[in-house]
């Protein structure tokens, strides 16, 4: 599927894979020779992100400059001539919301990081942000008000991101689209019934809106409990 799509940049989240264990078929993907991986320190099989690019970035950084969160391998940022591309896997608040407070600290630190980047050049943030922002972004909002990914605190964190000058590209283009989900639990045939959540986003600096051509949810692509999304920009 990746070879057919031939993306300029491929962002991967929750890879659960140490840099040394990236499969050879991924390393050998044609058209994506520049590969940058981050994994959780001393926690094999946990978290992890990757960023693969057709052209070599000007610079690549790992983490957000916050020791509490950078050990988890959640963010890789590549600088290109016209923008930064950020691949991010935002922490889950956890069953029983046991990790809601660390999640809130991450949201605040991550927003500050994105604002620092945005002060230098526009930003495209791609990733599993582990939040359904509005009721339209999940199948059963009423039943999930206390569920991780739909708490008021997490939703407010995403609202602060938008208020800081960033744009949810899919919702900007398709404000009324319903049933547009990117994650379905493996339980109960949820995907076949489209009982899902929109947790994966392409968020961009407001001044990139003129370059935004489309943002597509690729819900027919199998292989994970999440589906890919594609952001198309003329940059």
> How far is the first residue's CA from the last residue's CA?
24 Å
Radius of gyration: 17 Å
Main sheet: which strands, in order across?
Answer: 4-5-6-7-9-8
| Tally of structural domains | 1
CATH C-level name: Alpha Beta
Q: Please bin the fraction of helical residues.
A: 10-25%
What are the segments in which pLDDT stays under 50 over at least 5 consecutive residues?
none
Q: What's the shape?
A: globular
Mean pLDDT: 97
Which architecture per CATH? 4-Layer Sandwich
The proportion of strand residues reads 15-25%
What is the CATH superfamily? Answer: Endonuclease/exonuclease/phosphatase
Largest sheet: 6 strands, mixed
Reading the helices and strands in chain order gives: HEHEEEHEEHEHEHEEE
Count, helices: 6
Features:
Deoxyribonuclease I, Chain A; 6-stranded mixed sheet; DNA-(apurinic or apyrimidinic site) endonuclease activity; 6 helices; 3-stranded antiparallel sheet; 20% helix; 235 residues; globular; alpha+beta; AP_endonuc_1
Describe this structure in words.
The chain is an alpha+beta fold. It has one domain: Deoxyribonuclease I, Chain A (4-Layer Sandwich), CATH 3.60.10.10. Helix content is 20%, strand content 24%. The chain has helices spanning 2-5, 24-27, 67-70, 100-118, 152-163, 169-173; strands at residues 9-13, 34-38, 49-53, 59-62, 75-79, 84-89, 123-128, 166-168, 200-205, 212-217, 229-233. A six-stranded mixed sheet has the order 4-5-6-7-9-8. Helix 4 (100-118) runs parallel beside helix 5 (152-163). The record marks 130 as: Transition state stabilizer. This is DNA repair nuclease/redox regulator APEX1. Keywords: Cytoplasm, DNA damage, DNA repair, DNA-binding, Endonuclease, Hydrolase, Lyase, Magnesium, Manganese, Metal-binding, Mitochondrion, Nuclease, Nucleus. Residues 1-226 form the Endonuclease/exonuclease/phosphatase domain. InterPro entries: AP_endonuc_1, AP_endonuclease_F1_BS, AP_endonuclease_F1_CS, Endo/exonu/phosph_ase_sf, Endo/exonuclease/phosphatase.
């Amino acid at each position: 599927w990746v070879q057919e799509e031939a993306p300029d940049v491929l962002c991967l989240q929750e890879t659960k894979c140490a840099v040394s264990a990236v499969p050879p078929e991924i390393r050998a993907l044609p058209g994506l020779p520049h590969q940058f991986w981050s994994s959780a320190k001393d926690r094999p099989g946990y978290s992890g992100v990757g960023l693969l690019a057709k052209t070599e970035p000007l610079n690549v950084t790992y983490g957000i400059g916050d020791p509490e969160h950078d050990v988890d391998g959640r963010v890789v940022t590549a600088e290109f001539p016209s923008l930064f591309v950020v691949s991010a896997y935002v922490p889950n608040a956890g069953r029983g919301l046991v990790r809601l407070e660390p999640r809130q600290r991450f949201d605040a630190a991550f927003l500050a990081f994105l604002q620092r980047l945005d002060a230098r050049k526009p930003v495209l943030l791609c990733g599993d942000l582990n939040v359904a922002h509005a009721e339209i972004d999940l199948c059963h909002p009423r039943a999930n008000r206390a569920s991780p990914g739909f708490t008021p605190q997490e939703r407010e964190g995403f609202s602060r991101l938008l208020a800081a000058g960033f744009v949810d590209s899919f919702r900007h283009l398709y404000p009324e689209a319903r049933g547009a989900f990117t994650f379905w639990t493996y339980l109960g045939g949820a995907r076949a019934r489209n009982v899902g959540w929109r947790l994966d986003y392409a968020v961009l600096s407001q001044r990139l809106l003129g370059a935004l051509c489309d943002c597509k949810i690729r819900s027919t692509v199998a292989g994970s409990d999440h589906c890919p999304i594609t952001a198309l920009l003329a940059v």
